[in-house]
Specification:
Blueprint lengths: L4 H14 L4 H16 L4 H12 L6 H14 L2 H13 L5 H14 L5 H17 L6 H12 L9 H10 L3 H7 L1 H22 L12 H23 L5 H19 L5 H34 L2 H12 L3 H16 L4 H18 L4 H14 L8 H10 L3 H24 L2 H10 L4
Helix pairs in contact: 1-2, 2-14, 3-14, 4-7, 4-13, 4-14, 5-6, 5-12, 6-7, 6-8, 6-11, 7-8, 7-19, 8-19, 8-20, 9-17, 9-18, 10-21, 11-20, 12-13, 14-17, 15-17, 16-17, 16-18, 17-18, 18-20
């Protein structure tokens, strides 16, 4: 039996991944082997990578949003935001859980990265919640991981930038489409936290004295201003999303060094180094995807899948359900950017053929993949919080179940009712 070069290519990616080679490198090696087996020019792999990287203006937004998040984490912006959120929702039962969720929703408007949100806010809020045994450490870690999922859904969003890259959908409208689902997730997590707080008798925080509220609000105002600048700048036509990412990075640096004066040049250097490493990791993954997607295109995999699904006579609802189930399973096993770059492009032709709006489809896909960050066994956010809190992963997973269930409910709502995603983009002028 003859094994096709494409089968060998996929097998090499899987094998190298199992052996521990980064997936980006695995895809480049596998693509090179495919080109060798098919007699094509080996330089095609490098050509596809270079063309993809240098012709994709939107990619510049990724390192800039990562840098903005790192600068906010080393500055005192997170502290100011948490104090402000304590004023807003800290007085309710389970108040620090609510503070956790609201802080992540606000922080989501600045970073676009779930990991940045989890690390930046998690270091502080988990300590606040676990102090004197007020909340179990595992519960504090679980709600922090769940709330961090909101980061890449409320704009700006690095995964949405990646989705725009593979689908040609508008980044601006994708960002707007994520607002309502992000708010729904936040409200859902707060409802789950309220139920858990009443059942388990979590404490009510002492209300912040009235005289301190103006000072706390003023101190938080420069940090709260960044999402406003981004939203009005991008949707007011002043800047593109990529330019908005540059503004976010500059403003984070300005706020941390000039307004709050809470960061040293050594910390700025460390933030630059950290963001550079993260960007390199993502960049290599994207480079590998450009090379492998060339193989997928030659093999006509998207067209074959579209024909197969047409033969199955999928409805829009059936197709979306099937995609959601598949992505939820893959999200338990693979990193989100890998799914966006390798798996999602295969579904886009079928989505177009079925008349599914690509902005709606993109937001559903991103929300789905973000849920994968808190679902075992992969659950990257779960590992991050387990490492951060030195808590057994199994304990965090158990505490995270109500929040995962709430996230799945929100996913079902936005999948079944496209207007939950599209009403705000259409309000701004989207015609899709």
């Amino acid at each position: 039996m003859t094994i096709s070069p494409f089968t060998i290519c996929v097998a090499v990616i899987i094998l190298l991944g199992i052996l521990g080679l980064p997936i980006g490198h695995s895809m480049i090696v596998a693509t090179t082997i495919y080109l060798l087996l098919t007699g094509l020019d080996l330089g095609t792999a490098a050509e596809q990578i270079l063309n993809g990287l240098f012709n994709s203006y939107v990619l510049i937004a990724i390192p800039l949003f990562i840098l903005a998040a790192d600068l906010m984490n080393v500055g005192s912006l997170t502290d100011k935001l948490l104090r402000f959120c304590l004023v807003l929702v800290g007085r309710f039962r389970g108040g620090l859980g609510h503070v956790n969720v609201v802080a992540n929703m606000i922080f989501a408007g600045m970073s676009g990265s779930a990991i940045a949100d989890a690390v930046g806010i998690g270091k502080i809020i988990v300590g606040m919640m676990a102090k004197d045994g007020r909340y179990p450490v595992a519960y504090a870690a679980a709600i922090t991981a769940a709330a961090a999922v909101i980061g890449p859904i409320i704009p700006p969003s690095i995964p949405m930038v990646v989705y725009a890259l593979v689908s040609d959908a508008s980044i601006g409208y994708l960002f707007l489409g994520g607002v309502a689902p992000g708010i729904l997730l936040g409200v859902g997590f707060m409802i789950a936290n309220s139920i858990m707080a009443r059942r388990r008798g979590f404490p009510i925080e002492d209300p912040v004295p009235l005289r301190e509220i103006p000072k706390i609000t003023v101190n938080a105002f420069p940090a709260l201003l960044l999402p406003i600048i981004l939203l009005f700048g991008i949707y007011g036509g002043v800047m593109t999303p990529t330019e908005g990412a540059a503004v976010a990075a500059f403003y984070a640096l300005f706020a941390a060094t000039v307004i709050y004066r809470a960061v040293t040049w050594q910390q700025v250097y460390e933030a630059l180094l950290s963001s550079g490493k993260a960007t390199t990791s993502i960049g290599m993954l994207i480079a590998g995807a450009f090379a492998f997607n060339y193989v997928v295109t030659i093999e006509r995999v998207p067209d074959s899948l579209a024909q197969m699904m047409a033969h199955w006579d999928f409805s829009r609802a059936g197709f979306l359900l099937a995609v959601n189930v598949l992505l939820l399973v893959l999200g338990c096993l693979l990193e989100g950017t890998t799914i966006l770059l390798i798996v999602v492009p295969i579904f886009i032709p079928t989505a177009k053929a079925l008349g599914i709006d690509l902005v709606h489809f993109g937001v559903v896909v991103v929300v789905n993949i973000m849920i994968g960050l808190v679902t075992p066994p992969y659950g990257l956010l779960l590992f991050v919080l387990a490492n951060l809190t030195k808590t057994p992963l199994a304990n965090i997973v158990k505490e995270a179940i109500p929040f995962i269930a709430m996230a799945l409910l929100v996913l079902a709502i936005i999948t079944a009712i496209p207007e939950t995603v599209l009403w705000l983009p259409r309000l701004i002028g989207y015609k899709g």
